[in-house]
Write a structure and sequence with these properties.
This protein is α+β, with helices and mostly antiparallel strands. The protein has one domain. It has one helix and three strands, in the order ββαβ. A three-stranded mixed β-sheet has the order 1-3-2, covered by helices on one side. The longest helix has 11 residues. The chain is globular, with a radius of gyration of 11 Å. It comes from Trichocoleus desertorum GB2-A4. This is Response regulatory domain-containing protein. InterPro entries: Sig_transdc_resp-reg_receiver.
Length: 50
């Protein structure tokens, strides 16, 4: 399993936004979840099955 932060950047201790780990196998649902969660102010980490 591969974890990837959606913004591609390293985590910062100064960023106080809550983090959500998304484990969603559906390729069509995952981007929608990511978009909606980011819009709500969450930092999103996607778990990809490799």
């Amino acid at each position: 399993m591969l974890l990837k932060e959606s913004n591609g950047a390293q985590s910062s201790t100064q960023d106080s936004s809550p983090i959500i780990l998304v484990v969603e196998p559906d390729d069509e649902t995952r981007p929608l979840l990511k978009h909606n969660l980011k819009h709500q102010g969450y930092r999103v980490i996607i778990a990809l099955d490799v």
